[in-house]
């Protein structure tokens, strides 16, 4: 019985051993982000958002907030690794979050909320910055905005622009740090 057991072990042993290592793939150059261009475009975007005038002065005193955090737009969080020490070593996660946020606000500016108040300069600046970031990190899936009530458009515009201003402030800091010479 021992020879039969040995024979079975010899036949089964190759099935238990790990497969030989595949040849290493040819290294693909890491994407290169034009940080200086992104810094310049993000500053321009921040400047444009800051100079927008509220067409409904009564809304200037209104602070809007959304109750449901699941519906909040993308925002840069601590967990996105956008802090200076992490950006110097691995910026992929941070840039993906920025790309997600830029795409969200671009979709929002193209939605029915802004049909009566188009902001072409803001849309152009967003498109240019999106182009630079997408070039290196691909496209994010687009999420069509659901239609909203016409009476709510001024309120939703105000909320969207406040959040965009907040987002661009943090994003501009990220690009400013990464574009600085070391």
Automatic annotation (TrEMBL):
Signal peptide: 1-23
Cell division is among the record's keywords: no
UniProt-listed SUPFAM superfamilies: 4-helical cytokines
Protein localization: Secreted
GO biological process: one example: innate immune response
Domain of life: Eukaryota
GO MF, any single term: cytokine activity
Record keywords, A-Z: Antiviral defense, Cytokine, Disulfide bond, Immunity, Inflammatory response, Innate immunity, Secreted, Signal, Tissue remodeling
This protein's name: Interleukin-23 subunit alpha
Annotated function: Associates with IL12B to form the pro-inflammatory cytokine IL-23 that plays different roles in innate and adaptive immunity. Released by antigen-presenting cells such as dendritic cells or macrophages, binds to a heterodimeric receptor complex composed of IL12RB1 and IL23R to activate JAK2 and TYK2 which then phosphorylate the receptor to form a docking site leading to the phosphorylation of STAT3 and STAT4. This process leads to activation of several pathways including p38 MAPK or NF-kappa-B and promotes the production of pro-inflammatory cytokines such as interleukin-17A/IL17A.
Family, per entry: Belongs to the IL-6 superfamily.
InterPro entries in alphabetical order: 4_helix_cytokine-like_core, IL-23_alpha
UniProt KW Secreted keyword: yes
Subunit annotation: Heterodimer with IL12B; disulfide-linked. The heterodimer is known as interleukin IL-23. Interacts with IL23R; this interaction enables recruitment of IL12RB1.
């Amino acid at each position: 019985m021992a020879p039969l057991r040995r024979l079975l072990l010899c036949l089964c042993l190759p099935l238990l051993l790990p497969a030989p290592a595949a040849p290493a793939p040819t290294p693909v150059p890491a994407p290169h982000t034009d940080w200086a261009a992104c810094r310049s475009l993000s500053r321009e975007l921040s400047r444009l958002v800051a100079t927008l005038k509220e067409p409904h002065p009564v809304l200037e005193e209104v602070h809007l907030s959304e109750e449901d955090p699941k519906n909040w737009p993308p925002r840069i969080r601590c967990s996105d690794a956008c802090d200076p020490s992490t950006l110097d070593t691995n910026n992929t996660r941070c840039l993906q979050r920025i790309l997600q946020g830029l795409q969200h606000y671009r979709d929002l500016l193209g939605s029915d909320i802004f049909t009566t108040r188009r902001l072409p300069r803001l849309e152009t600046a967003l498109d240019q910055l999106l182009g630079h970031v997408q070039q290196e990190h691909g496209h994010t899936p687009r999420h069509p905005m659901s239609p909203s009530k016409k009476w709510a458009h001024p309120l939703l515009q105000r909320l969207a622009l406040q959040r965009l201003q907040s987002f661009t402030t943090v994003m501009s800091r990220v690009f400013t740090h990464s574009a600085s010479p070391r």
